[in-house]
Write a structure and sequence with these properties.
Elements (H helix, E strand, L loop, with lengths): L3 H4 L2 E5 L3 H13 L3 E5 L2 H11 L3 E5 L7 H10 L8 E5 L4 H10 L3 E4 L4 H30 L4 E5 L5 E4 L1 H7 L3 H4 L18 E5 L5 E13 L2 E10 L1 H61 L4 H28 L8 H14 L4 E6 L8 H22 L3 E9 L2 E8 L6 H7 L2 H12 L3 E6 L5 E8 L10
Parallel strand pairs: 1-2, 1-3, 3-4, 4-5, 11-12
Antiparallel strand pairs: 6-7, 6-10, 8-9, 9-10, 12-13, 13-15, 14-15
Helix pairs in contact: 3-4, 9-10, 9-14, 11-12, 12-14
């Protein structure tokens, strides 16, 4: 702990006049300050470096080394540059005051000094110095124990100082990197506008980091404070999350593929087996009606009712088979989507316009089914919510990309609001596109219709799609 004498402010008085030194010593001692005395500039510099006073009262006119030269040397040293200096001189002209402040003085007092004025100035500057040191100490503590690396550099990009986190992060001791270019630790940081970069440790290892710069105006001149944050853990977590999402999409795509295969199988079973049975039953009923109907009118009516029920069953079987697996898909993607538009046109008052530059597009079945399902969901949403009068659908292949566009002139909707509601229809469409490595764009606004564009990358015609 500091003893009581060390807590009392120390003032260095520099004057070549014995009378003036004694007078200032008397004033300051009576005001409970500790006092150091120097009769010339070199002695003053030695005492200032050895004792670091809280204030220096400096005479201007001294032999060999005047006050201006003493002040300039004080401000040039790291040990003494922060000590406030009050010039005391008999030169009361404006030029002397101008030279004093240019040399780094904090205040200026003309001779003869007045006790009350001098002590008031001394008290003020010591208090300001103590406050500044306290704030600087707090700032240094915040920087020193911050969880991020702080590196101070000069205007040439050379390292001036670093905190404890920077030492741990880079593996260098502070003294080893003072004067070293920051690019040794953070290569190409000044040549790039990117805040994310790679940093190099002493052992040669590399880690990802985010770097930001803040200019600082200090008594040592203009410095740059680089804040370096190690984002290795975050990058790893992001990579793992991205990989997990991709795995989930791949799993969802495989599940979707399995479901489509099962739907195709069930549709064929329903159409071929149940459809054939119902068709055969209807033929038998027709034959039975011919054989028995004329002789018994009552049986004729019952047989007709049975035929009607069988016809309803056949129609239901066809609807089930179509919903599970539209037969149009076997003809190709373009005919399937055109059939889909015709199907919706038959059950809607809206006008449907379909366009495709190719009669069909050579595409594997997995991608074809995914694109068809997205078109099906889009047109279902138009029928349910859009209140549209015109619906335009187009399919085109551009190089190795397939583009599906569904546009309507309906009432539109707020895309952001709908995204917050997490509607599963649009979410399912987007996930289907992402699972194929594609994108889904939705452009809509209230009263301005809706435009959905799906882009799916395509492989070669013989390549089977696997997400």
């Amino acid at each position: 702990m500091l003893n009581q004498s060390e807590t009392v402010p120390l003032v260095l008085v520099v004057d070549d006049s014995d009378v003036n030194r004694k007078l200032m010593e008397t004033y300051l001692s009576l005001a409970q300050y500790r006092v150091l005395l120097a009769s010339d500039g070199p002695t003053a510099l030695q005492l200032a470096r050895a004792h670091v006073p809280q204030l220096i009262l400096l005479d201007v006119r001294m032999p060999d080394m005047d006050g201006y030269a003493v002040c300039q040397q004080l401000k040039a040293s790291d040990e003494t540059r922060d000590i406030p200096v009050i010039f005391i001189t008999a030169d009361g002209d404006a030029n002397a005051e101008k030279l004093a402040f240019a040399a780094g003085a904090s205040d200026f007092l003309p001779k003869p000094v007045k006790r009350e004025v001098t002590l008031a100035r001394v008290k003020t500057h010591i208090a300001l110095y103590a406050q500044r040191r306290s704030l600087e100490g707090m700032f240094r503590n915040v920087i020193e124990f911050a969880p991020d690396a702080f590196v101070l550099t000069d205007d040439q990009g050379r390292i001036v100082q670093m905190n404890a986190c920077a030492e741990r992060l880079f593996g260098y001791a502070r003294k080893d990197v003072q004067g070293v270019a920051l690019e040794t630790l953070v290569p190409n940081i000044f040549a790039s506008a990117q805040s994310s970069t790679e940093c190099h440790r002493k052992d040669g290892s590399v880690f990802p980091a985010e770097v930001s710069f803040t200019p600082l105006q200090t008594n040592r001149g203009k410095l740059q404070m680089a804040v370096i944050r190690d984002v290795s853990i975050r990058k790893k977590a992001e990579s793992e999350l991205s990989e997990s999402r991709q795995q989930l999409r791949e799993l969802a795509a495989k599940s979707e593929e399995a479901r489509e295969a099962e739907r195709k199988h069930i549709a064929r079973e329903v159409h071929d087996e149940l459809g054939q049975i119902l068709t055969a039953l209807r033929i038998d009923l027709s034959v039975l009606k011919i054989q028995m109907g004329d002789s018994n009118p009552q049986w004729e009516a019952r047989l007709q009712n049975m035929k009607d029920l069988v016809d309803q069953g056949i129609h239901a079987v066809r609807n089930v088979a179509v919903s599970l697996r539209p037969a149009a898909l076997d003809m190709g993607l373009v005919p399937a989507i055109e059939w889909l538009c015709d199907h919706h046109a038959q059950h809607s008052s809206a006008s449907f316009e379909f366009h495709s530059e190719q009669e069909d597009i050579d595409i594997d079945e997995v991608r074809a089914v995914i694109i068809f399902r997205i078109a099906q969901e889009s047109l279902t949403n138009v029928a349910r919510y859009a209140n549209a009068t015109v619906v335009k659908v187009s399919v085109a292949r551009h190089e190795d990309e397939l583009r599906l566009m569904v546009q309507d002139d309906g009432q539109g909707f707020d895309v952001d609001a709908l995204a917050r509601r997490k509607t599963f229809g649009l979410l399912g469409m987007r996930e289907r596109a992402l699972a194929m490595g594609g994108t889904l764009e939705i452009d809509s606004a209230l009263g301005q219709g809706t435009r959905i564009v799906v882009r799916i990358p395509l492989g070669t015609s013989t390549e089977r799609a696997h997400p």
